[in-house]
Design brief:
Layout: H1 16-30, H2 42-49, H3 53-65, E1 69-72, E2 76-79, H4 93-101, H5 103-120, H6 123-141, H7 147-160, H8 165-172, H9 174-190, H10 193-211, H11 215-234
Antiparallel strand pairs: 1-2
């Protein structure tokens, strides 16, 4: 199979791996590179993009971690899945890499927050989580993205974990989390009714587990929700 030509624009910026990631992602999402297509060699990308081999390897490693490409030893790197072509309508292509990368610390932090919240939450804190969930449901019903309500829900769960450092850590990540939530929920709003229903159901299950003080279920449902959110962005489900 012949290599696909990449139309790359040389960059003069920091975070070159994110820029390269974004340009390759944009071409996959737009259909310029079809599923199964073979990417050019690392040496070719280095030359065309005018960056070092470590930058190329980092970008390709992230694309592989996100399930967008697959590397076959001794053969090359191939497009594995195609995200929605609307993805770059809601975030700059170079920002998408950092938004997806944010899910890794979120999985570590928020999974534990949910478990601790199930053990430690007060009635007032549970009410706050429930109010945030109701606000998210209302935003969806009005046809809004609901990203602000989504952030409020996750912040309320962190606050209910009984350690003031947890919500502070989420606030420290606030800009990148808000950006990733806005991107993910913008795709959800453009998608099917079933997709919107699943997003709300994931939040309801987290709330129910915390309400029932079931630590393991709360951790499980939070991890599942974050994993699914990431998969919806990258198109791993193949749904709209």
């Amino acid at each position: 199979m012949d290599d696909v030509m990449l139309k790359l624009k040389p960059a003069r910026r920091e975070r070159l791996a994110d820029v390269l990631y974004g340009q390759i992602l944009e071409q996959i999402a737009s259909g310029q590179m079809a599923e199964g297509a073979k990417l050019p060699s690392e040496a070719r990308i280095c030359r065309d993009f005018q960056v070092s081999r470590p930058v190329v390897r980092e970008a390709l490693m992230r694309l592989q971690a996100d399930g967008l490409v697959v590397s076959r030893q001794g053969i090359g790197t191939f497009v594995k899945s195609r995200p929605s072509n609307k993805l770059t309508d809601f975030a700059a292509s170079a920002e998408i890499a950092s938004y997806l990368r944010a899910f890794e610390p979120r999985l570590a932090l928020e999974t534990e927050c949910a478990g601790l919240a199930a053990m430690r939450r007060t009635r007032a804190q549970l009410n706050q989580i429930g109010e945030a969930l109701a606000a998210l449901e209302g935003a969806f019903a009005r046809g809004e993205t609901g990203w602000e309500e989504d952030f409020a829900f996750h912040l309320a769960v962190a606050a209910a974990a009984g350690n003031e450092l947890f919500p502070r850590l989420l606030e420290e990540l606030g800009d990148i989390l808000r950006g990733s939530m806005r991107m993910a929920l913008s795709l959800t709003r453009q998608g099917s009714e079933d997709r919107r229903r699943r997003v709300l159901e994931e939040h309801r299950k987290i709330f129910t587990a915390i309400s029932g003080q079931n630590r393991e279920l709360a951790r499980l449902y939070m991890r599942y929700h974050l994993t699914e959110s990431r998969a919806r962005i990258t198109g791993s489900h193949g749904d709209l």
